[in-house]
Amino acid sequence: MSDTNPFEPKIVAYVCNWCTYLGADLAGTNRLEYPSNVRIIRLPCTGRIDFNLVIKAFEMGADAVLVSGCHPGDCHYTAGNYHARRRWMLARPLLETLGIDMRRIHFTWISAAEGRKFQETITEITDTTRALGPYEGYRKLAEASA
Amino acid sequence: MEQELRDTCKRLLEEGAVDVIIGYGQSMPDGPVCPVFIKKAEDVGRLVWNRQCFGNLATYLTRKEIKALGKPAIVVKGCDERAVVVLEQESQIDRASVYVIGMACEGVGDPPASKCGYCDVHMPRFADAVIGEVANEPVSQDGRYAELDAFMKKTPEERFAYWTNELSRCVKCYACREVCPMCYCNRCIVDKNRPAVIDTSSTPMANFAWNMARAFHQAGRCVGCGECARVCPAGINLRLLNDSLAKAAEEGFGYRAGMDKDTPPVIGSYALQDEEEFIQ
Amino acid sequence: MSEIISREALLRAVDEWLKQGVPVLGPSRINDAFVAYAPLASSDALALDGYIHPRNSIKEAVFPKHEKIYAYHIKGSGVELEDPERSVAKQIVLAARPCDAAALPILDHVFNWDFKDAFYNARRAATTVVTLACTEHDAQCFCTSVGLGPAAENGSDAMLLPLGDGTFEVRCFTDKGRELFAGKTESSGQAAKVPAGPPERLDVGPITEFLKDSFDNPIWNELTLRCLGCGACAYECPTCHCFDIVDEGNAAGGYRAKNWDSCQFEMFTMHASGHNPRARQAQRQRQRVMHKFSIYPQKFGEVLCTGCGNCTRNCPVSLGILNTLMDLAAHLDTTGAK
Question: What's the CA gap between B36 and B90, in Å, rounded?
C-alpha cells in the first residue's frame, strides 16, 4: 500500500438485533465515534449466525470478522447465544486446523447499554487489523478461483 | 465367524424377523468386498466376513431405496455401530426396527488401516446379535489424535498452504458425503441454490468452503470410521480434517460420537457453564 | 528399425518443455498409495512405473472440471461483457494410458455434433497426447472387451513402449507426435513386445442388444442397490462428459461457468417444477449404462467406454461398469434371453 492510498481494513460485523445492534445504535446517539471500516450486518440472534457466513465474509474480501451478541442469560430468544457459543467452541479448532488466521475473527458480548464497549471494540479491531494488513491468504485463494 | 454370520442371517430371513440383510459380499469372484442386500434365505452364502470388509453399512439405513426393502438386519463393526447409535440419537432410525448384527473385529485392511491402530470398540456394544470375540483395549486420547497433534505443530500459514494444496484436487464428487452415515440430509447445503451458500464449482476457494462446511456439520457426530478418506478419488486426507472436530468435542466436552446414546450431543445442546475465554 | 529414448533423455525433454512454458500433464505420485494425472512442476514429479492406472483420467486437459465461458462487470449503469481467452496455449499430456487417450476421439463426436464446442476444440487442438503402453493389468481393466488394448493407438500422437531396461521405444503416429520427439530419439534395432492385455471378460454385443429394450426391466433395481449416488465414477471416467452451467455473481459482476456434473446425482434431472424423471438410483444407473453402451453407439457408432476400470477402482462400493455389465451378462445367461 502506498502513502497516498494506505490500507484500510474491511471489517464485517455480524451482530444480533436485540443487543449489539442497539449497542451500536447507542454509540451513535451518544456521538461516540468509531471507525467507518466496519460493515454491520444485523441478524435476529447470534444463534442464527452460520459458520458459513464468516467464511463468506472472507471470500468476499473482508480482512476481519466480528461476531457479537447478547450476554449469556440476556438472549431475547432465551438460548440462542448459548447455542452460538457452543457452535463456536467447536468451529474454532476446525478453523485452526485449516490455518485460518484466527487473529482476524473476534467474538464479543455487547449489550444494548454498552455503546462505549461497541466503540472500543470496533476501534481496537480496526487498529489491530490495519497492523496485520490485508488477509492475503484468502485473497490469493479467491484470485486462484476467479 | 463367517459361517455363524450366514447361519444367523439364514435364521432371521426364514423366520421372517427381517426382510433384508445389509451385509458384506464379493462383487466379483476375485473382486473387492462390497455391500450386498440379501433378501432370500438361500442367498446367505454370498455374505462374507474378512479383513476387506471396509465400508460403513450404516449409511444405507437412511437411503430411501433401502428403506423400501423392509425391515433390515445390518452387519456392523464396532466403528459402524457407533454410527447406528448416532442415527438413533438423531431420530433417523427406530432402533427397534433395525436388527443389528455386531461383528467382533480385529481390524480391516492389510496392512491394518490406521484407524484400527487406536480402536477401542473392537467388540460391538449394543448389537442384537454378537458374532465372535476379541479383546478390547482402551486407547488413550493422545494415541487417537497423534497425526492431528503432529500436524498442529505447523504454523497457520503452513497449514493453510497444506489444505489449499490438498483441497485443490477436490472434484466435488461428494463421495465423502454419500459414504458417510451421518450425511443423510434430503437436500445437502451444497445442493441448495435459493440462496446458494456454497459454490458448487471445483475451484480452490469453493473446495475449501465445501470441505469446511461438511467437516463442521460433522462436529460431535463423526464417528471416525475413516470411510470419507478411503473413498476420496483425489486422495485428500479428510480424516485429518474431521478429526479436528472429534478432538474438539472430546477435549472440550469429553464427548465421543456414538459411544453412548444417552449423552446429549455437543451440537444442539449447550451448558450454562460452557467456557468462553475467547469471547470478549 | 525403431526409435528409442532413454528414461533420462525423456525426463530431460520434460524439463525442456516445462522451461519453454509448455504445461505437461502426467502421472504423479500424490502420496504412498496414490498416482494421479497432475500438472508436473518438474520431471521429478513424473511417475512412469509402479502403478496400473492413475486414479483419474486425462480429460481435464480438454474438458476442465471448472471452465468460465463468459464474465461480466457492472460498470455504472451498464454491463461490460468479457469473453474468456479463446486461444489455448500448447500443452502436452505425457504417459497417458492408451485407454485414456482413446477416449478423446470418442468425445470428439459429442462435442462437435449439434453444436461445435469451441472450448473443447481449442484445447483439443492445442494438446499433444503421448501414451505409455501398458505392461500389466489388474482385475478392473477390460480394454480388450471394448475393442482396445495395452498399446491401442486411438487418440495418441505418439506412444512410449517400455523395453524393460529403462528405455522406451517411441512410435509417432501424427505430425504433432513427430514434431514433439524430433531430434530426441535414437535409432535402434530393439522393438517392444506388447503384452496381450486383460482377457476378454465379456461379449459386449449381446448386452448392447439387451439394453435396447431394457428400459422397464426390473433388473436395474437389483443391480444397483448399493450405488450411493456420488460422482466418483463419472468424474474419473475418461469418456463421461456431462456438465452443469452455473451463474455466479454479486453486485459487482459475475461469470457463467461449465462444471462437471454426474448423472448419478439426485439433482441431475431435477426440473424447476420439482418433478424428477430419474428420482431413484436404479433409474440413474440404468441411464449411465444405456448411455455408454446403447444410446451413444446408436448415435455415434462407438461405445462410450474404453475399459479403463477407473469407475470400479474409485467407486466407494466397487460397483462400476464392468461389474454391472458382468451382472447383466450373467442375468442374460440365466434367463436365456432379453
Answer: 26
Residue A42 has pLDDT above 80, yes or no: yes
Burial track B156-194 (b if 16+ CB lie within 10 A, e otherwise): beebbebbbebbbbbbbbbbbbbbbbbbbeeebebbeee
Tell me, yes or no, if B202 comes closer than 8 A to chain C by beta carbon: yes
What pTM, to 2 d.p., does this model score?
0.93
- Identify the chains in contact with C, defined as 3+ C-beta pairs within 8 A: B
Question: Which among B64, B179, B200 is the nearest to C246, CB-wise?
Answer: B200
B154, B159, B216 ranked by CB distance to A91: nearest: B216
Q: Is residue B18 part of a domain?
A: yes
Instruction: Count structural domains, chain A.
Output: 1
| Cell matching residue B9 | 442371517
Q: What is the distance between the alpha carbons of residues A19 and A25, in angstroms, rounded to a whole number?
A: 10
Q: Which three cell numbers stand for residue C126?
A: 492445442
C272 touching B (Cβ < 8 Å): no
Convert the pLDDT of each residue in B190-211 to its tens digit.
Answer: 999 888 889 999 999 999 999 9
Q: Is residue B198 assigned to a domain?
A: yes
pLDDT of residue C33: 77
Residues 168-227 (C) with a CB less than 8 A from some CB of B: 221, 225-226
- Quickly count: other Cβ atoms within 10 Å of residue C183's Cβ: 5
Quote the CA–CA distance of A91 and A55 in Å, as a whole number. Answer: 11
Tell whether B171 lies on the interface with C, counting CB pairs under 8 A: yes
Task: Give a yes or no: residue A116 inside a domain.
Answer: yes
Which member of A85, A121, A141 has the closest CB to residue B208?
A141
Is residue C336 over pLDDT 70? no
Confidence (pLDDT) at C334: 78
Interstrand relation of C167-172 and C2-6 (parallel, antiparallel or unpaired): antiparallel
DSSP string, B46-67: GB--STT--S-GGGGGG-HHHH
A50 contacts in chain B (CB < 8 Å) = 197
Q: What's the ipTM?
A: 0.92
Task: Choose the weakest-confidence range: B262-276, C48-62, C66-80.
Answer: B262-276
- Mean pLDDT, chain B, as a whole number? 91
Contacts of C289 (CB under 8 A, 6+ apart): C211, C321, C324, C325, C328
Instruction: Say if residues B60 and B74 touch (Cβ distance below 8 Å).
Output: yes
CA–CA dist A119, B232 (Å, integer): 47
Distance in angstroms (rounded) separating the CA atoms of residues B179 and B225:
10
Residue A119: give its domain's CATH number: 3.40.50
Chains with ≥3 Cβ pairs under 8 A against A?
B
Distance CA C54, CA C64 (A): 17
Instruction: Find the CB nearest B267 among A90, A96, A101.
Output: A90
Q: Please report residues of A whose CB lies closer than 8 A to that of B159.
A: 96-99
Of A83, A92, A98, the CB nearest to B270: A83
Question: For the segment C94-128, what is each residue's pLDDT rounded down to a tens digit?
Answer: 999 999 999 999 999 999 999 999 999 999 999 99
Tell me: the pLDDT tens digits for B143-171? 788 899 999 999 999 999 999 999 999 99
Q: Looking at the complex, does the CB of residue A29 fall below 8 Å from at least one CB of chain B?
A: no
- Domain coverage including residue B154: 141-253
Do B149 and B99 lie in one domain? The reply is no
- Mark yes or no for CB contact B174/C244 under 8 Å: no
Distance from CA of A146 to the nearest CA of B (A): 8
Question: CB contact, 8 Å: C139 with chain B?
Answer: yes
Residue A113 belongs to some domain of the structure: yes
Boundaries of every domain in chain C: 2-335
Say yes or no: B245 and B178 in one domain.
yes
Domain extent for A127: 11-138
- In chain B, the number of structural domains is 2
